[in-house]
Every structure is written in structure tokens, then in C-alpha cells.
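Data availability (excerpt). The following record was deposited with the supplementary files.
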Amino acid sequence: MKSVSANNTPGQEKRLSNGMRFFLTMVGIYLGVGIFDGSTMATALANSWEMLVKLMPVMGLVFTVNALVSNFLPPAWIERHLGESSGWQGWALVLGVSTLVPGSPFILYPLLHELTQKGLKKSLAAVFLYNRTVKITFLPAMTLYFGFRYTAVVSLFMLAAAILSGIIVGSLSKHQTRHAPLVSPGL
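Predicted structure:
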């Protein structure tokens, strides 16, 4: 008898998740390196452990924000303010919030995934990721070193580029939903 999980329909074999495949691939790489050079593997493991320890507080913050979004932002609110019918207000909201959020963008991927599952337009997710280059905390230093006019022009170009990237991603995602997916679901 074949097992059925949430990701599989009856009659399908159980598959490893992408995360588990990545983990097993990394274990294989470490073991392969360890066979040929044990000291390199030990150094790599020590560096990986140090990085994990440094990332734990950030990941804790990300999981906390994800939990808050999951529990307190209903899909109807996200769909209304950040979904397909959000209009210019959704773009303005994402442009504003993305300049305020600290940290590197890769830690926000799980949050953006959660929001897109609840109705966030892919174009707005692209705007959020691109516009994170405009940082309110960096603007005073940038103004000090390069001047107000330079800072204003560069910031406006970054905002325009974020909007352009959102328009392109939105166009591609609409095209993708009308035609075959660009990436097969099994990958």
C-alpha cells in the first residue's frame, strides 16, 4: 500500500522535499570532501557552525514575524491591500515598508512566501526585494559623504528601478499563469 501525504495524491510515491534534498546534497558534499581532506571538512563544519550561531537570532526574528503575520494578518486584508486589486496603494505601501525593514533580504524570503500564499502580488514581492537597497538608516551617511542632490537622485532611481522590476515580474507572472509553468513542480 502506498502512503499519502499532504504533498502527494493517492497513487503517487512519497517524495523528498526540496529542503531535505538540499540537506542530503550538502551532507554528501561534506562527506566527499572529508574522504579526501578531513581537515578541510573540519574547518568547513566549524565555519558552518559559527555562521549558524550568528544567524540564530535573526532566524528567530524571522520566525516570530512570520508567526505574527500568519496569525494576525488575515488573507482578506492582504488580498485587499497587497493583492491583485490593491492598485497604487499596494505599491506605495510596499515601497514604504521595504525602506524601513532592516537586514538582508534572504532572511525575508519565508515571510514573502507566506504573504504570496495569502494573496500578495508577485510584482509587489519583487518591488519589496529590490527596494530594500534604499535604506532610511543609510541616508544621513550617504548625504554626508555624497551630498543631498546625489542621495536624492540615486534614491529616486532605485525607487524607479524597484517599480520597473515589479512591473516586469508582474507581467512575467501573469504570462506564466496563462501558459505552462516555467519550472516543473517536481524540481
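Summary of structural features: Residues 73-178 form one domain.
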